[in-house]
Amino acid sequence: MKVAVLDIKGKETGRKADLSDAVFAIEPNEHAVYLDVKQYLAHQRQGTHKSKERAEIAGSTRKIKKQKGTGTARAGSIKSPIFRGGGRIFGPRPKDYGQKLNKNVKRLARKSALSIKSKEQAILVVEDFNFDAPKTKDFKDVLKSLGLENKKSLFVLGEPNNSLYLSSRNLKDSEVITSSEISTYKILNANNIVLLEGALEGLESNLTK
């Protein structure tokens, strides 16, 4: 599949990028996409929730009232869950919400997501570019030239570029990642995918192993 390569002004450079049909034009597997997105969201959960149970509460261990003759239920500790300030019964404990997923399923899911975006004509190929210094205004100018203002966009680079990353960091609707960091969730969450030329080879290589 041939796609025109654009410059940062949004104009065609006269070159064509060859996008592999094995990555950008497969029949999407919805179940694989579902599993990969589910795993990604599960991994975002910290699982550090914790409440103190009876044995962890700091408090007196004396018996708070005599066993019999009070007309009420017996009670042996102020740390009992039935009293204010006592421990919590069956409270939340730290938990790892991570899920395992086969590598082949993850690759299939990512290829499916890219194929969906390709079918929607939501993938742009832009020649490699850089800024002399991190500047959000320059990155916003690029978004405007590409017609991506006020749209969620995902820029995929071939290798880390601190200048581009810092220039986009303050923009809530844009994200800059490398081809090795791409995920099904990020692909589907963006309205448009901007692939820099230098990212194509690594992206296709990672997804066709």
Describe this structure in words.
- The protein folds into two domains: 2-45 and 100-207, Ribosomal protein L4/L1 (Ribosomal Protein L4, Chain: A); 47-96, no CATH class.
- The chain contains seven helices and six strands, in the order E-E-H-H-H-E-H-E-H-E-H-E-H.
- The chain has helices at 21-24, 30-43, 103-119, 136-145, 162-168, 184-189, 197-207, and strands at 2-6, 12-18, 123-126, 153-157, 174-178, 192-196.
- A six-stranded mixed beta sheet has the order 2-1-3-6-4-5.
- Helix 2 crosses helix 3 (103-119) and helix 4 crosses helix 5.
Which regions contain 5 or more consecutive residues with pLDDT less than 50?
Answer: none
Q: Order of strands across the biggest sheet?
A: 2-1-3-6-4-5
* Computed CA radius of gyration, to the nearest angstrom: 27 Å
Name of the CATH homologous superfamily of the largest domain: Ribosomal protein L4/L1
- How many helix segments? 7
What is the number of domains?
2
Tell me the helix content.
25-40%
Would you tell me the overall average pLDDT? 93
CATH topology of the largest domain: Ribosomal Protein L4, Chain: A
Assembly type of the shown chains?
Answer: single chain
Provide the structure class. alpha/beta
Largest sheet, strands/sense/barrel: 6 strands, mixed
Distance separating the two termini: 20 Å
Give the strand content.
Answer: 5-15%
In total, the number of strands is 6
Per CATH, which architecture of the largest domain? 3-Layer(aba) Sandwich
Order of helices and strands: EEHHHEHEHEHEH
Shape: elongated
What top-tier CATH class of the largest domain fits best?
Alpha Beta
Organism: Zobellia galactanivorans (strain DSM 12802 / CCUG 47099 / CIP 106680 / NCIMB 13871 / Dsij)
Keywords: Ribonucleoprotein, Ribosomal protein, RNA-binding, rRNA-binding
GO cellular component, one term: ribosome
Family: Belongs to the universal ribosomal protein uL4 family.
